[in-house]
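Onboarding guide, step 5: your first structure request.
Type a short instruction followed by the sequence, for example:

Predict the 3D structure of this protein.
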Amino acid sequence: MVKCSICGKQAIYVDKVTGKGFCKNHFISRVEKTVEETLLQALGQSSLEKSTICVAVSGGKDSTSLLYILKKLSDRYEFKVQALSIDEGIEGYRDLKIPFIEKVSRKLGVNLHVRSFREEFGLSLDQMFEILSEKGLEIKPCTVCGVFRRYLLNRIAYSLGADYLATGHNLDDEAQVLLLNIIRGSIVNIAREGGVSSPRIHERFIPRIKPLYRLTERETALYAYLNNLLPPFAECPYVVFASREVVRRWLNSLEEENPGTKIRLIGVKETLQKAISRKIGDRALRLKTCKICGEPSAGEVCKFCQLREYLGI
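The system replies with structure tokens like these:
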């Protein structure tokens, strides 16, 4: 029986990289301390105090845990927390998650702002999928969903006067994205996405922070379970189109054989970010203004407007 490395009680979690065990209480405090340290590293206490952080809450274990932890920290560091959620309109999936998000937000006393694809764009993602299917699925629904969701989150956070937009990306997510960016040759994206935060690279772009950046998916899942934050189980039906799932499964198997692989990848990512930033300069990382909608864009016309024209909406 593995003992907690701090108090000697029975461990409920063992870090395979360090071999250290943690009991329930010390595991919870370890997770919360890691989030706190990551937050302070990203922003600094002076920037954190009096700020407004909007949390993008999908209703999954990661973003729900993030909302819970940030609310606990908000009194200590005197910042405000608001919750943002996007209803893409996925039958049998999002309609199960939204009530859960509403319940958690009420319990925490956090204002929740929900926007839907149907209200904002006239069609749900399910309806957009029908159009994509008629066009031969040249563009996958995950691409449309991701672009439209990020567009709305940034626009809503900006309208609410947020200083930062917090997302529930964990260490696994960051390692997966690094590999995908390398596969796609997206060198600028490696530098732009940042380790724990993205700077103000456009006047309408709300800087992102990733307080779960140093925590694995296993750790956030266990934290959610121990704090009764696990959402109702529902898998997005469009996950079969996500190329990221292939990378996720491969990376998980590699981590199982070689514990610490994901952490080492993050170290590589941070080294690459510094090197790329020095090479191309900060100006190359700045975003342009979309000539159609006026929102931040990597090109003359943003991906949102391009996809909206493609869909005919």
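Each response can be followed by summary notes, for example: The mean pLDDT is 92.
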